[in-house]
Amino acid sequence: MSRHVLLVARAVTHHGGEATVRRLAVDVAAVVGAPVVACFLDGAAPSLHDALDAAADAGATEVLLVATHLPPDRYLDTWLRRAHADWAAGRRNPPPTSVALPLAEQPALVTAVVAAVGGPVTPLTGRPGPFRAAAWTAVPRHRHHVLVCRGPRCTAYGANDVAGALTGRLAAHGLGDDDVLVTSTGCLFPCSIGPVVVVHPDDSWYPHVDVGLAVRIVDEHLCGAGPLDGRPPRAGGTGDFADAAQVDRAED
Ligand code: FES
Questions:
Q1: What's the rounded mean pLDDT across residues 209-222?
Q2: pLDDT of residue 191
Q3: How far apart are CA 12 and CA 40, in angstroms?
Q4: Distance 112 CA to ligand 1 centre (A)
Q5: Is the minimum distance from the CB of 153 to ligand 1 under 6 angstroms?
Q6: Of 48, 148, 154, which is best to mutate to test ligand 1, by the most ligand atoms within 8 angstroms of its C-beta?
Q7: Is the predicted pLDDT of residue 230 greater than 70, yes or no?
Q8: Which CATH number, 2.40.50.140, 1.10.10.10, 3.40.30.10, 3.20.20.140, labels domain 139-251?
Q9: Close Cβ partners of 107 (under 8 Å, ≥ 6 residues apart)
């Protein structure tokens, strides 16, 4: 029997924690003697879907999901179940999968906090200057603002690759934040037609974005003549895009 453990975290709401989760996976693997991998419900790679695929392709006969957050994240707890159900529905013979008790309910957490309280400390020496710096009062002067949804469903559908393609292509054109400001977001609502990318001020909502379309958005919309043909703006709440969003929210 081959049991694979996935530490499932979020990156959209917990910036900069990815490396810690990856390091934790390595350390836990050394103790439990089984494959342990860090993955993300949103905002970072690998996605939960990709990690489940990798475990199944590697011959896992059982998968254990560990929601890796303190305190417990209700969004993560809910959506890792939904994301797993979506993945299993599209996979032949998915391995049985379980979810562990929340970390906050593990007795060993007390031991860890006691060790932190009694362990080495580092004096805080920061200055308040950066907190109130004038630079943080200036409104950016970019001409386009691109929102890249990296919520749980868009992440499952490939938003990590889309975000990388967008920023890489913009860099290839020599464009920075003062030209095109790219912001990763949480769920923007029309999840079922994700990955979703929005370009403002044109109010252009692009559904089903893949790497190829991301490159075209940069080349033809942001550096070219404007919104792509066949990818209309929101159009006042009518049309396929708006209809799909309505259906999706009704399911929640
Ligand atoms: S997760 Fe992207 S629109 Fe909901």
A1: 97
A2: 93
A3: 9
A4: 36
A5: yes
A6: 154
A7: no
A8: 3.40.30.10
A9: none
